[in-house]
């Protein structure tokens, strides 16, 4: 069997492995949970705690808005509600971006390891071919 056939078989095998990995993707919630085990876990937990506090403040402001008696109070509570939403949105976006960044870093490390293994296998096949 020549080296081209071996390489084709190896590439087909890798393609099947990649397809199985893509089917086993954990999705958004799995990525978010994985981000709590990263080097940025303290900042992620801190941001989530802060975003939760802002969310509670938003709910309180919205409740006060609907129970306000005059227009001046309604305007005050609506402004605070809007401010809470404006502050909370970037925090949530950062949390989602960080979880995506962690997933990409893990995939890059997996690909590096896989490429090293494949390179070693190809070098071994070439050495075996040269020794024949």
Provide a descriptive summary of the structure in words:
With 132 residues, the protein is an all-alpha fold. The protein is 89% helix and 0% strand.
Helix-strand blueprint:
Blueprint: H1 3-23, H2 27-35, H3 41-67, H4 71-131
Brief sketch in words of this structure:
The chain contains four helices and no strands. It is mostly helical. 3% of the residues are buried.
Poorly predicted regions are none
What share of residues are in beta strands?
A: under 5%
- Average pLDDT, to the nearest integer? 84
Total strands: the figure is: 0
Class of secondary structure makeup: mainly alpha
Number of helices: 4
The N- to C-terminal Cα distance equals: 12 Å
Helix content: over 70%
The main sheet comes to:
none
The shape, in one word, is rod-shaped
Q: What is the gyration radius calculated from CA atoms?
A: 26 Å
Q: What is the string of helix and strand elements?
A: HHHH
Question: Keywords, please?
Answer:
about 130 residues, mainly alpha
């Amino acid at each position: 069997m020549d080296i081209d056939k071996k390489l084709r078989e190896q590439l087909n095998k890798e393609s099947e492995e990649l397809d199985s990995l893509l089917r086993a993707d954990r999705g958004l919630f799995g990525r978010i949970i994985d981000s709590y085990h990263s080097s940025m876990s303290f900042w992620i937990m801190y941001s989530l705690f802060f975003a939760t506090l802002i969310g509670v403040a938003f709910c309180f402001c919205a409740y006060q808005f609907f129970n306000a008696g005059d227009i001046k109070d309604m305007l005050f509570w609506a402004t605070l509600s809007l401010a809470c939403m404006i502050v909370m949105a970037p925090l949530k976006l950062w949390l989602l971006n960080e979880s995506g960044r962690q997933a990409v870093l893990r995939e890059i490390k997996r690909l590096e390891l896989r490429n090293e293994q494949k390179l070693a296998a190809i070098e071994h096949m070439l050495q075996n071919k040269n020794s024949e």
